Amino acid sequence: MKNASLPLLLAAALFVGASGSCMAAGKDRPDIGKLEYESKCAVCHGHKGKGDGGVLDMLKKAPSDLTVLTKKNAGVFPFERVYAVIDGREFVLGHGSRDMPIWGNAYKSEGVTAAEYFFETHYDMEMFARARILALIDYLNRLQVK
Length: 146
What we know:
globular, 0% strand, mainly alpha, 7 helices
C-alpha cells in the first residue's frame, strides 16, 4: 500500500511545484505594450508620455501629451482614433508619412522575420500586427491621468 501511494504523492508534488513556478513566471512576463511604446514612441513622446522626448528640439511640431487623451475626450479613452493613428489609417501631421517606421506597415514587415521561426504552422501577419498595436494601446490607456 505504501509503495502504491508514493508515485501519487510524487506526481502531486511535481504538479504543485510546476504550478508555482508557472505562476511565478507570469509575474516576470514582459509588458509588451510598454516595450512597444519605449521602442517606437518614447523618443518623441517621452518615457512618461508627456510629449517631452529626447528629439523634441529636432521636431517642427511638439509631440502631444499622450497621458491626457482620455481627459480631452470627455473621460473616455479614444480607442478607435488611437488605433487608426497607430495603424496608419488616420494621418497625423507630426508623424510624417504613413510609411514612417513607427506606423502601420512597419509592424507587418517587422513580423516577417519572426515568421521564419513558425514556418511549419499557419502564421498570420495581420494578427501579429494587431496584437502589437493592441498591446501598445493598452499601455497608452494605462498612462492616462486620473
